[in-house]
Structures are given as structure tokens and as C-alpha cells.
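Notes to self after the Tuesday call (sharing in case useful).
The group wants a holo model before anyone commits to mutagenesis around the pocket. I volunteered. Ligand is G3I. Logging inputs and output together so the record is complete.
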Amino acid sequence: MSRISFFVTTCCLCLITAACTSGKKITTSKNSSSLKEAFKNDFGIGTALNAVQIEERDPRAALLILQQFNMATPENIMKAQVIHPQWAVYNFDMADKMVAYCQKNNIKVNAHTLIWHSQLPAFVRRIQSVDSFRTFFTDHIKTVASRYDGKVYSWDVVNEALNDDGTMRKSIFFQKLGGDFVTEAFRIAQSSAPNTQLYYNDYGNEQPAKRAGCIALIKKIQVAGVRIDGVGIQGHWHLGRIPLKEIEESILQYSALGIKVMFTELDIEVLPRSLQGADVNQRMIGDSSLNPYKNGLPDSVQQKLAADYEALFKLFLKYKGKIGRVAFWGVNDGQSWLNGWPVAGRTNYPLLFDRDFKPKPAFYKVLALKQ
Ligand code: G3I
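Result:
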């Protein structure tokens, strides 16, 4: 970046930061400091939203979201546990609010998620007969997908159906309905939501074995004559270990199937961790050595994070025609799920904005790729 453009960018961001801190509304004519503006001809820029943000209860978050993002995914409020708490009870309050908030602000919603083994309401695990389970499965997809058809841009129809070795996860859906449940979910979604993009979403599916399983799953859906429009690679990666080669191969191989590739839950873990992936059922025993940056992130780590994000976005830009969306899993470091997983109560720094909503060096590196 030239010294002049660095100055301009820095000034713009000072304005944003000042406005965020004071809670005042600012307008920027040319947003040289906005991710969504910078990448508007390349791919959408998304974030995950929680209930506080959807209800605009945090003025600093509210400002930053409108400034930076043109796509959003509900972090939790469209999961079955929230939206379908009992057999015959649906709770659309928060989901309706999210759709209205995003409509008002020109943000495309990627709805998340129709079928996932995690965060299921308790009644689902008590269903005994296969017929009743199938009724729940069908009714859930039909009811939720049809309600938001044409109001959301896309659905993660099925989330995390695969093991790391590419075989099918032996989830409750697999056990009750067999391996065809993914195709069936897409078939029901297709008829319930004809105007909505339909995606399969997983973590670690850039790795060769899981990718092969994911490709087989997608082909199976296609061979059945059922529509699938894209695949989500979640992108929960670790500092200094971004699998760039595997990501590149995945973009090429998935897009060769005639579908779009999305990076759906991007964050970069900077803390020590012995687990891979994003399986929320796995946990690590915590001790203080696992929480080394309680009082702030050392500059050396901050710079590494910036370099990782820069390398990733360089790759995304190289394949911009094949990528629909790059979405971060959260607005700022303070609200990231990685403060609580796989060890509770840590201070993590995985995103582009810090706890005060200030852009981090990684943000500048990413933005500089477009200047
Ligand atoms: O809403 C309850 C609240 O009523 C209760 O008092 C509180 C006590 O623990 O829990 C609250 O629920 C928590 C929920 O987030 C909402 O904050 C759950 O315990 C907690 O487990 C849940 O974590 C979410 C996680 O999925 C579990 O499903 C994370 O916020 C969310 O970021 C994470 O997102 C997943 C994606 O959906 C799929 N890919 C992996 C990604 C990260 O795990």
C-alpha cells in the first residue's frame, strides 16, 4: 500500500473507530475502509450474528456490521433447538427478526442450519420409531424452509454429516434414516424453498479424505436429480497452519462439480489446542498455560495472524469467480465462540476486529490486497 492510501485508510478507520466508540452514526461516501466495499466485485463478505446483534442492542456492533458486511449467518437462532423446541411448537421470533433486520439493511441471509446432529431439541432424541423420526425430519425442513423461501438467500441444508476420514458420521440422522438422509434433506428443501440456494456445509472438508467423502456426497445428490448449489468450507483454522494447498485443491475440485464454494465460518485460532476441527462435543481440560494472552496479544502473534489472513485472501481473490461468500464466524474477538471452546473462559483473538471493535493489523493486510 502506498503511504498516501495507507494514510487515507487509517483516517477512515479512525473515524469508524471514533464513531463506534461514541455510538454515533457516521456515513462514509467512499468506503476505502470497508471489506464489503473492497470485495464487492469479488465475493460477498459475511459474519455470524447473535441475538444481541440482531436486536441491535449493541450500538458499536450495529455500526460495524453495516459498514463491513453484506451477508450474515445466524450463529445459533435458526438451529432446531431454538426454532423447533417441541414436536408441534415452532419459535420463529428471532429468525423473523433476523430476516427483517437483514432485509432493512441489504444484507443477504445464509440460513443455518436445517439438519444438524448438534443443538437438537431434547424431544428429537426421545423419538423411538423410524416413521415418527421421518415425520419430524420432513416437517422440520418443510416448515422452516418454506417460511423463509425468497426471504433468505441460501440455506445450509445439512451441516457436518461427515467424519474426518470421509465416511458418514453415525449421527442420529444416519442411524434412523440411513445414508440417504442428506439427499432426502436436499430433495425436501428443493420443493419447499425453490427460490433459495441450497448448500452442504462442513469443517475440515478441504482435507483430502474428508473432501473425497464430501465430493461423493455431492455427486450422490446430483445423480439423484436433486439440486445442490454450493458447498461450505467452514474454515476454523489455526495460526501458522492454514492448509492453503488443500484449500486451493478444494476450490478447484468442488467447483468442477458445477457448484459454488463458500468459506462460511472463518476464524483463526491463536491459542494452544490439541484438537482439530470444530466438533463442539470435544473438550480439552484447561490450565493457565492454555490461556497465555489474557492481557493482550503480543505483536509477533498479531503479525502472524495478519500474514495468515493475507495469504488466505490472496488465494480467495485468485479464485474469486468460483467463490460466493467469505464469512467470518463472529463480528469481533470478544464474541467469538473460540473464547469458550475447546476450553472455557479463554481470551482468544481469531477475527479481524478486536474487543473494542477496532480493526486489527490483519484487517489492514486484507484490505491492502484491494488497494
Ligand atoms: O442459549 C443457551 C442459554 O439459554 C444457556 O443459558 C447457556 C448456558 O450454557 O447456553 C446457551 O446456549 C449456548 C449457545 O451457543 C448460545 O449461546 C450453548 O450452550 C453453546 O453450546 C452454543 O455454542 C454454539 C455452538 O455452535 C454449539 O452448537 C456456538 O455459539 C456457535 O458459534 C457454534 O457454531 C458452530 C456452527 O453452528 C457449526 N460449525 C461449528 C461452529 C462452531 O462450533
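Two things stood out.
Residues 75-76, 118-119, 159, 203, 234, 265, 278, 280, 337 surround G3I (CB under 6 Å).
The first helix runs from residue 3 to 22.
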